[in-house]
Amino acid sequence: MKTVEELCKEIDASAELQNELKAASDETKLGEFLKNHGCDADVKEFIAYVNSKNEGELKDDDADASAGVYPTRPEIRLVLHI
Fold it and tell me: Is-above-0.85 flag for pTM?
């Protein structure tokens, strides 16, 4: 089984995996994504890991959100609403 860190490295290197992750717009679909790609983490662990890696960084979408533009990408909504 893969760790969250290993899967995230694969996601970073693969546009196909990035698109699959974007399509995982709720907890159930994200859990299926993790399982389908051999990750031993659950959804909350995955989100916590991603959030910990993003601490202190302000991405373009986050900057837009703080300026009043609501982010529309599914992975942004997923991270913000769980």
Answer: no
